[in-house]
Amino acid sequence: MSVAFLADKTQSTIRVEDLREAAAELNIEIPHGSDEEDYLHLLQSADSVMRQIEASEDYIHPALSPVETTHPRTYWQPVIKDNPVNAWRHRCELMASSPTSDTLKGRTVAIKDNISIGGLPTTVGTFTELLCKDGNLPPSPIDASVVSRVLESGATIKGSSTCENYCASPLSFSAATGPVHNAWMYSYTSGGSSSGSATLVAATAIHRASGKDFGETVDLAIGGDQAGSVRIPASYSGIYGMKPTYGLVPYTGAVPLAPMIDHLGPLATSLEDIALLLQVITGYDGIDPRMTPESPLRSQVQDYPKLLSDFRSSTQEKEKLGSGLKIGLLRESFEIAGLSSQVRDTVLETSRSFFTAAGAEVIDISVPMHRDGSLIWTAATRMSMSEWLCQGKTSGYPSFLPPHIQAQWPPDQRMYELLTATNPAVVNIMLSGPFLNKQFGSKIEAKAHRKAFELRAAYDKAFEEIDILVTPCAPTVAMPHPKMQSDAEGPAATVMEKLSQAVGVTTNTAPFNVTGHPALNVPCGFGIATDRPDVKLPIGMQIIGRRWEDALVLKAAAVFEAGRELVKQT
């Protein structure tokens, strides 16, 4: 390692006591004399370098400069009557002045509140006081890559959608602004952490079908998915939600949880709209280190809508849409703890019936390592997640984190109390990181990363026999929110009461975040709410494909839809 320069000792505020404190944290005692003097000088020099960078003007990558819009970028807080399910965080009306295509012309889009929208704050679902001390949330100076692409495609961005506190919940009770309510049933979870995105899209479909008023909603939305945060809310909300192949969609400009599992993906009410939005946001951006040589250049992005349309109309006389497609029902996914019988039976019955009716072959297939998938996900991310999520650590590769996000660190008692009251999962992340590092060291996290490659290989081995894997998505239908505040009827839910509902929710989704396979939630039926037998709530099926075969995942969902129509006709 080279030393940039040696600082002027007389100008430094770093003293020998600082060196001794730093050494003590490493269980080192530096002897007095020349060693101590030299190491102090080196520490002073390093401090001087950092202070010079701190004082310098920041740099905004030209590709992330906000797209020019038809009107100045302004935003406003939604009023309660226009935000009845708390799905909006900030509202806006953004259209590009000179869109480069009309792919999404006339379509409205919501963006999850961990993704930078130029001119709007980004709160990551948490409290203003944890993001800025003066109470004035700084607006984003950049458009995330996906935001620029949505605007340039002719869409109208209507605002940022509520997400869970620090994006750290698969349920929807934890946002600083309060719970997000399921569009099908008020006071029930809509899933997280892309809770607002899923709810706004589902509300559009429900409004069209029943006339129920949800205020302004949207046609399409973008969510983030680290363990299922697009697919789980899509499952609870009865819509489509896709986690693309890792590295297909740039994550640039979004707040990370951990680089190896970060994904952005589309939510919509139809496969055609999933394909459309996927085409718009896909492709190498030259900035995101998550993207690989396998990531397509923008000019090489597949025309997903055309591929889907051509596939739907491709059948010859006496041939069915699913002919030649081999579907594998992942045995271990139907045996997970907490899977309700109505979800299990619905996914099994509809997948066997509809895929078969459409001409596909359906078999049972076993991947025993799937049972360990969520354990590998946890071990591979938990030690360092606090550093990425809470402390804003960079990836170690050239990366462009949102420059306006400066979350509080280190935590204090007030931060602990706020998060314990809303999302104790964040406190658990902050506590478990240093504890696990002290107990096990980085070697176990590194081993878990190697196990992720083993898990990927296990799924890839199954894909030698079949084209598509099928699992349940969320293990139950939506459940009521926990009690978030004390009142005359009793105390608020305890930490464990809040978190127990989330245990096992991502067992079938998180494994594919560490392996990178594309996965799509497909609405497949309805179940009965456990405490409201008069209420039907959506059930979701997960379709998984080989890496980089996102188009085949869409086609398989089209086969499922075709089979459903054929079964209805018989």
From TrEMBL:
Domain of life per record: Eukaryota
GO function term, MF aspect, one: catalytic activity
Annotated Pfam families: Amidase (PF01425)
Domain Amidase: 101-554
Protein name in the entry: Amidase domain-containing protein
Species per Swiss-Prot/TrEMBL record: Penicillium arizonense
Lineage start: Eukaryota, Fungi, Dikarya, Ascomycota, Pezizomycotina
